[in-house]
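User: Show me a protein chain along with its predicted structure.
Assistant: Here is one chain, sequence first, then structure tokens.
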Amino acid sequence: MFLPTVAASPKLLLRRCLGVLQRVLCLFLQVYRWTRGGSEARVEGSPEERLRQGATTPTSVNYHFTRKCNYKCGFCFHTAKTSFVLPLEEAKRGLKLLKDSGMEKINFSGGEPFLHEKGDFLGKMVQYCKRDLQLPSVSIVSNGSMIKESWFHKYGDYLDILAVSCDSFDEATNQLIGRAQGRKSHIENLYKIRGWCQQYKVAFKLNSVVNTFNVDEDMTAHVTELNPVRWKVFQCLLIDGENAGEAALREAERFVISEERFQGFLDRHRNVSCLVPESNEKMRNSYLILDEYMRFLDCRRGRKDPSKSILDVGVKQAICFSGFDEKMFLMRGGKYVWSKADMKLEW
């Protein structure tokens, strides 16, 4: 009887040693996560924990339904890595899922959203969101180069806000940045679109990316004349795989500016009442971004890590992988008077 007991003892000892080793490894991994990204993990929790606690409400969503663009902005952080665009009915199904989950505002972007089907695909989605889903706010971000007055005539009633990107009021600077197409004047076109917005009762918004080529420019006079409802001023942001890194289609490192230079630009324009500044810190995690497959993109690690598509797993599960920082969204003024019916604008 003694021999089996002796034979069993090494096995028992081995199991105990393995158990201790497993606990040590778990402790090591926990410490490693804390030191490498622990504050993020402790504050936001894992996707599974966020799902148990209740998913974030997708109040405001940015749908980049196409990556194709006719401009070549050197700092672009959503580049033409694919030409895929969802069929319209599938896109509508996803938009309905978002509305049913609490979406109040949808922003269509790209790429250049007016490029696909000459803007008609975009117009049909805008019409669907406002007329059928009755969303409080429907907006678009565009470079403005493909917009025709006929689009406003057909779809303008369904659009709350049109944001046009303009990084400089000097044509040569726009050429350097890549925000241009041939010899067309980006600035003249911008003013033309501003007039159409006034005529067709669409709130006009201006977006600018501050970078090495425009950081010393004073845009006060032009912005004041254009009188947008908001002037979003972004600090040039690097995203691995998009505008930085080996797999990127852009090399944006030469466009990057320091926090100090960005603040200098803001100080120069401090008297522009519609200015809404967004530093890299504010911008990186405070947007709910859907890509062309309707996957939420997590930008916390300096790249775009996609969730599964909301068309496959639903909004509640997919949004837990978005890395969305709702507090920062509110701090940067992400929720504002965004329905043109409530803006009390003088048309």
